Structure formats: C-alpha cells, structure tokens
Amino acid sequence: MRFGIVVNEGPYTHQASDSAYQFAKAVLAKGHEIFRVFFYHDGVNNGTRFTVPPQDDRNLQRLWSELAEAHKLDLVVCIAAAQRRGILDANEAKRQGKDGDNIAPGFRISGLGQLIETGIQADRFIVFGD
Amino acid sequence: MSTLHTINKSPFERPSLTSCLDHVAQGDAVLMIEDGVVGARKGCAFVDALRAKQTSCALYILGPDLAARGMKAEDIAEGIGIVDYGGFVDLVAGAARVCAWL
Amino acid sequence: MPQETGQKKFLYINRRAPYGTIYALESLEVILIGAAFEQDVSLAFLDDGVFQLMNGQDTSGIGMKNFSKTYKALGDFEVRKLYVERESLAERGLAVEDLMPITYEDENEDYAEKPSIHLVDRSEMTRIISEQDVILSF
C-alpha cells in the first residue's frame, strides 16, 4: 500500500514529528511504500539544517534526511507555511532577497497542491499533529 | 470499511478523546498515542467512557508511548489492546480512513 | 472508496477557534488550493471550530488579519458543504444565526443562492466522517 503522511508540528516541541518518523519507519519495515511526507504548519521547521540539538538525543532533521535518502522518500515542505516561518531553499532565498537558505538535505519546498495530490494518490492518509 | 481514530492528547489536557468517542461508528477502531495513552489507565476518570464504547469499537494504545510514560500493560484498563508501531501500521492499513483527533 | 469518477471524498475537520492558533487560517489555505483538484470536498466544523464561522469578527484590537470573509468566498471555489455540528453550537451558547451567512450559487437552478452551511447533529457528523476517503485534521 502507498501511505501519505502529514506532519503538522515542528521538531521537539511536540511529539508529532517523532511519532510520524517512527510510523514511517514501521510502514517501510512492513514492506509498504510512502508516497510522500508533507510538512505543514510548524512541521516545516523539521526541514531546517541549522538545528544543533544536544548530542545525546536524537537529531530529528538528520533522521528524516537519512530516512529519505535510504528509501528515496519525497519530503515536501509547504512553501506558504515555510515562507511564514523562514524555511528557504536557495531559489526561494534568491527570489525573496534573503541572505541565506536553510533547507535540509532530502527536503524540498513545494505548494499545497502536493498535499492534495498525496490525498488523491495514496491508499492511506494519516496526519500527525498537536 | 471502518475508520481508525487516533488520539494524541491527554483527555485531562484537551477534550479530544471525548469528542472522538462521540463520533465513533460501529466497527471503528480507536488508537491512543503520545500523551493520549494516559486516558487508558485503570482507575482513570475516562475508563468508563472507554468501556461504554467497547461493544461498538475496538480500543488500542501504542505500547512504546505507554512505556515512555512509565506504565506497563497491567496498568491499562481491560479490553484495550496494546500495539507497537508495526501494529499501528496494520491498523491504518486495515481501516478505510484515519481520523486524527488532535 | 473513491467514486467511479475517480474523485475522492475529502473532509477537512475544523475543531479550533480562530486566531488563538494558526490552524483555522492555514486549513483555509489548503481548502482553497484543493478546490482546483475537483475532488468531492466537505468541511466539518465541530467543537470550537464553530467559532471560525462567527459573524462580525473584528480583529482590529489584536493586530491580526481578519480572514473570516474568505469563508464567504468558498462558494466561488465550488466548496458548498460546510457541516456545522448542532451540539457544538449549543454547548457554546451559539445558534446558527450567530454565524456568517455563507452561500453558493447553484448553476443547476438558475444560479439561485443557497446556504452552504448545513446544521447536522453528532450522529449525522459521525456518518459523514464514515463516508470519507481522505480526512485532513489541523
């Protein structure tokens, strides 16, 4: 089956991103596919490469990036939510006249249409939030 | 086919469990995750509300979230199944849709 | 299950009041974008979500943008099924008259203006949830 996963909260403050990550790993371990992981609201904050969490705890951004690389996952950060919260890729930084970008490896910025498409294309759709 | 309802907040913090139980159809399943697991503890004020729904729907909690909060299987009210993340995936696969009560 | 047309039934669940958090505003943004995908869209307003539809919202004192008129434009985006839960209104001392008049134009009846808000009770809301393919919670 193809799963669509939505993450509505940022790392650490809420358990949503952790729960979604553990769920995503279990989906793959069971032999299913993940159509897309879509990050909305504060969930876009999972996609910055500038976090420096304590060494003795998990690095959620790195976990997502590594899972994406290992399984060729599509991690999408919503552009509107990202603009509000200051998550940019190089293109967006140039377009908006900002002096840097911060998107993490394995994440890409795209529109809300990708969220709708996830609902349409996935066999199962689940939201993790607060 | 049925709905899997997920609850991630404690019923003492937010009325999402109550709202969820007010909208469960016959044959649905309810899964408590994250802080939501505290509502399943024996003797807890919400156990009667959960028990009232047991005839119409299947109740589950996520074991790893239970253990994280210092609780064991024997601390949970009767009739509530404990699943791991793999079981969570199976519950989603076995339902027609998921309704997250945030 | 998806309908024969390939359309899926999408339900957007709104359970929070506006302005205290961003969920009401950002869920509207999804709904507006989603309209272009021609799926079978319904919106559910229950618990504090009913406050999103309150008439007379005035945000001038809190310095936030008043986005309530966007709900009135939903008809132009072919979003016509706004289910408001009776019990949620009653528990909050509200009546349907407290809500914004939201309408759409029915092209099948000479563009007659019809209400988009449908009052439903809890058991009907349960049934509506059970009929969906995709449920988005914010």
Summarize the structure.
The complex is a heterotrimer of chains A (130), B (102) and C (138). Chain A has 130 residues and is an alpha/beta fold.
Protein described:
The complex is a heterotrimer of chains A (130), B (102) and C (138). With 130 residues, chain A is α/β, with parallel strands linked by helices. Chain A has helices spanning 16-29, 60-71, 79-85, 90-96, 113-121, and strands at 2-7, 33-39, 75-78, 107-110, 124-128. Chain A has a 5-stranded parallel sheet with strand order 4-3-2-1-5, with helices on both faces. In chain A, helix 1 packs parallel to helix 2 (60-71). Chain A is globular, with a radius of gyration of 14 Å. Chain B is an alpha/beta fold and 102 residues long. Helix content of chain B is 28%, strand content 23%. Chain B is built from 4 helices and 5 strands. With 138 residues, chain C is an alpha/beta fold. Chain C has one domain (9-137): 3-Layer(aba) Sandwich (Hypothetical Protein Ychn, Chain: A). Chain C is 22% helix and 23% strand. Chain C contains 4 helices and 7 strands; from the N terminus they run E-H-E-H-E-H-E-E-E-H-E. In chain C, strand 2, helix 2 and strand 3 (82-85) form a beta-alpha-beta unit. The longest helix of chain C is centred in the first third of the chain and has 12 residues, at 23-34. The model of chain C has no long low-confidence stretch (mean pLDDT 96). The chains are: A alpha/beta (130), B alpha/beta (102), C alpha/beta (138). Chains in contact: A-B, A-C, B-C. The A-B interface holds A 1, 3, 8, 15-16, 19, 22-23, 25-27, 29-30, 32, 124-130 and B 6, 8-9, 33-35, 64, 84-86, 88-90, 92-93, 95, 97-98, 100, 102.
